[in-house]
Amino acid sequence: MRARVGQRVPVVVQGRGRRRGVARVLWVGAETVVTCGVVVLLLVVHQLWWTNRQARAEAREQVTALEREWQDAWEISPPGDTPEPTESGGPVRSPAPVEPGGSGSSVGPGTADGNGAPAEPSGGASSDTFAVLRVPRLGLTVPVAHGVSKRSVLDKGYVGQYPGTAAPGAVGNFALAGHRNTHGEPFRHVDRLEVGDRILVRTRARTYVYRVDQVLPRTAPRDVGVIRPVPRSLVKPSYGYAEAGAYLTLTTCTPEFSSAYRLVVWARLVSAG
């Protein structure tokens, strides 16, 4: 059958449909990238903002609760009437120099997450707070708890005491760990401490004043010598001490947002009152 004069014959252009398919694929790909970007951004906001806000609030509440409890106890029985057995200055146990081997294996500063926080020790850790750490230069006030468990201590914005280290004020090494970034990041600016700066540790019975004596800017994660009763770096032996004393050690990760190395601050006890 012949086409009538003036009648249009349809023409199929196959290239146009192919271009539409490519465009659709590109659009879906772009949406996926944007969605992933938003998810990553939310995760970053959660880690860098929300965990800090939450942990700092909990740490402030814990400090307030501790000080209120101590005040009530002081009104009932002033310090001096009841000795504090945990701070008697008795024998100090040396922390076992266990090499890190995964989560929950070491009391040293080597087993850590991305914030320089040591992993939970194998024997379990108590999250009970027993002291308040104050660093005037940094404007820092934070509760101190037994153990270095991430979940029950460090992620709450607390500072944790390494198991087996000395009590506050006692002969030996009162060694502490804290997050450098996220979860309250109490040790964010410990790199600003200088020799001579004061660090105060308040307990139920008294307040101990330490003075910063040495700063080890960087050492290996497995340098467990820094938290021994007489602290001395095993990696950099020129840093540390040779005689017994009442020491305070602060440890965290360095550089920021990395767990590549450890930053260590040592202080000596100068007074107790």
Give the structure's gist in a few sentences.
The protein contains 1 helix and 8 strands. It is α+β, with helices and mostly antiparallel strands. The longest helix is centred in the N-terminal third of the chain and has 63 residues, at 14-76.
How does this structure look, described?
By secondary structure, the chain is α+β, with helices and mostly antiparallel strands. The protein has a single domain (48-80, 105-272), classed as Beta Barrel (Sortase, Chain: A). The protein is 23% helix and 23% strand. It has one helix at residues 14-76; strands at residues 129-135, 140-146, 159-161, 172-177, 198-202, 207-219, 246-254, 261-272. Strands 1-2-3-4-7-8-6-5 form an eight-stranded mixed beta barrel. A hairpin with a 4-residue loop joins strand 1 (129-135) and strand 2 (140-146). The longest helix is centred in the N-terminal third of the chain and has 63 residues, at 14-76. The radius of gyration is 28 Å and the shape is elongated. Residues 81-107 and 110-126 have low confidence and may be disordered.
